[in-house]
Amino acid sequence: MDNKAYMYVLECADGSLYTGYTTNIERRLQTHNAGKGAKYTRTRLPVTLVYQEEFPDKPSAMSAEALFKKRTRASKLAYIENSIYDKFKGQTIKKSKK
Question: Read out DSSP for 24-89?
C-alpha cells in the first residue's frame, strides 16, 4: 500500500505563497485552479505549483507543512531555491540544438 504524501507550495496570481499537503499533487492542483480548493486560493487564481516534497505518510507531510508555514516569505523562497539546487547539483545541462 502506497501511503506517500506531499507538502506543496503554490504561487498565487497575486504573488503570495500557499502551502498545503496532499496525497495527489496533480488532482489537488486541479482542485485549487477550479476554485474548489482552499478558501485562501479561491480569490487568487490561477495558482502555480512551485515546490513539492515527498514524505512517507500523511502525518509527516502535515508536520512539514506546519513547520514551513512558520517561516518568513524570504526563508520559504530560500528553502525552495536550495532544495531545487541540491536536486540538480552535479548534473550537466544539455543545450538543445536549434
Answer: -HHHHHHHHHTT-S-HHHHTS-S-EEEEEEEESSHHHHHHHHHHHHTS-HHHHHHHHHHHHHHHHT
| Rounded CA separation 20/69 (Å) | 9
Residue 3 has pLDDT above 90, yes or no: no
Strands, E, within 1-98: which ranges?
Answer: 5-11, 17-22, 48-55
Which pLDDT does position 90 carry in this prediction? Answer: 55
**pLDDT for 48 beyond 80:** yes
Is residue 23 over pLDDT 60?
yes
- Comparing C-alpha atoms, which of 27, 34, 17 is closest to residue 69? 17
